[in-house]
Design brief:
single chain; about 240 residues; mainly alpha
Length: about 240
């Protein structure tokens, strides 16, 4: 079944306008990244050259993967319940747009700002380390494989977080509750990335491949599951069947 790009783009534009008008979403997108990056920005320039040995085993950049795990879940939590609260959900669902087009548009609208914020934070942190960290510390942190892993894992985490947030949004009747549940659902991922960052879990090639495959599978199943449960009648009535 073909999807209409025009209708998907229309949904994306509408969702982005709604996000900009929602103070809670704007604050989430602005403040959550600061929670993860500010401690690193403060700590890294003060580290002595001898600290580079620690980073050869750990991966401080993995800590920043909490941003793509957390931000889109909070944003996607608004996608359904937010419209229901505003009274705009029923008019949208009564249009000729297919549910797959509506779901894809909502997912892309959450993915675009989440990816932009995540990558901008990574680039800013890399530049910060290059400019202010001691050379051995910078070399230990900014290793090629680590940077590649960050680039590849970010969209996988964003997609997973969006499906979780959207699923929660379809099952709750209050935006703040959905946002809180989306945040809680992201905590296991944040815990794993933090353990890797502090070398409690060693980030071997095998572990990275397994985690990547698991996220890819979760993203694929998430799309299929959401397409199946994104039922117009149930969403309008607010039932949880």
């Amino acid at each position: 079944m073909s999807l209409s790009r025009r209708r998907v783009r229309a949904v994306v534009r509408k969702e982005l306008r709604d996000y900009r008008r929602n103070a809670s979403i704007v604050l989430t997108m602005a403040l959550v990244p600061l929670v993860f990056v500010v401690p690193l920005l403060i700590e890294v320039p003060t580290l002595p050259a001898s600290a580079s040995g620690v980073f050869l085993h750990g991966d401080p950049l993995a800590y920043l993967l909490g941003i793509p795990a957390l931000v889109p879940a909070a944003v996607a939590a608004y996608s359904v319940v937010g419209e229901r609260e505003q009274g705009t959900l029923e008019p949208v669902l009564t249009t000729p747009i297919r549910r797959e087009e509506l779901l894809l548009g909502k997912a892309l609208a959450a993915m675009v700002p989440a990816l932009a914020i995540s990558y901008l934070i990574y680039v800013f942190f890399v530049v910060w380390v290059e400019l202010l960290a001691r050379a051995p510390v910078a070399s230990a942190i900014l290793r090629g494989p680590v940077l590649v892993a960050q680039v590849l894992f970010t969209p996988l985490l964003v997609a997973w977080s969006i499906w979780v947030g959207t699923a929660i949004s379809t099952r709750t009747g209050d935006f703040r509750v959905a946002q809180q549940l989306g945040t809680l659902a992201s905590l296991p991922v944040i815990a794993v990335t933090s353990l890797i960052a502090f070398n409690v879990i060693h980030a071997s090639l095998g572990l990275v491949l397994c985690l990547g495959a698991a996220l890819l599978l979760a993203d694929t199943l998430g799309w299929r599951k959401m397409s199946a449960i994104f039922d117009r009648e149930r969403l309008v009535t607010g039932t949880r069947s």
